[in-house]
# Entry
Amino acid sequence: MIKGGYVGKILRVDLSKAKLTDEAPPDEKILRRYVGGTGLAMKFMYDEIPPSVGPDDPDNKVFFMSGPLSGTIAPSSSRHCVMTVNGSMPKSVGTGWSGGNWCANLKQAGYDGVIVEGESKEPVYVWIHEGKAELKDAGHLWGKKTEETLYSLEHELGIPDISVTGIGPAGEAGIKGASVCTDENHLSAKSGAGGALGRKKLKAIAVGGAKLGVRIADPKRAVMLAYKWRDAFRKCNAYNRRNGGNPRRVQALAKDSKLMV
# Structure
């Protein structure tokens, strides 16, 4: 296992069997060859989905994958890949990317990615917290918009700062172009995974609870590079024009010892 960047678990969600399984990620050789959420998702997809599988088939899968920088001090790194069989172009890959806090929280909750397979008979959602995962009934969430689902789960789970990625009414209807929405307004729009999740009856994946931390091979160098990135970003035209980004988060994260273990 690589010394830093990975927490060492991938969650496989078998909706047909209502079974959740923790799996070890691929070996170091594979992780180094297929770097990042997109590379790792593509590797899983190539290995697990035959070319004959279509977007509407029960054997289709949806992959949520992070990269080695997600959940660390690295700026702009809380992004994840969502991948499935493309619903608009036959025999091609549908790939989307999303921001928000979900990916960083997933890593700090103990998982590098989530693989969704099979189909549930009734609406369900996945709740990931403190290094474990549960499958819960989502009948009361079906029909809700994505922001309504987030607020409902915050109230239901009793944790105000959870992150949720999931689908709204378009995904529930199985529309092939439906997006997956993360934390209210971060859309994974190009994968068409929203429709795939709707056919699988998976409403959402919620993440919260304890922050277990992400290992960093060289913490001091990571902090140095993050500050260098912040300083360079402040000098660029985009920052001066829009005063955008969140460079102060680098300083806040640098003080969080849980990210440096």
Notes: The two ends are 16 Å apart (CA to CA). The mean pLDDT is 88. The CA atoms of residues 33 and 207 lie 28 Å apart. The first strand starts at residue 10 and ends at 14.
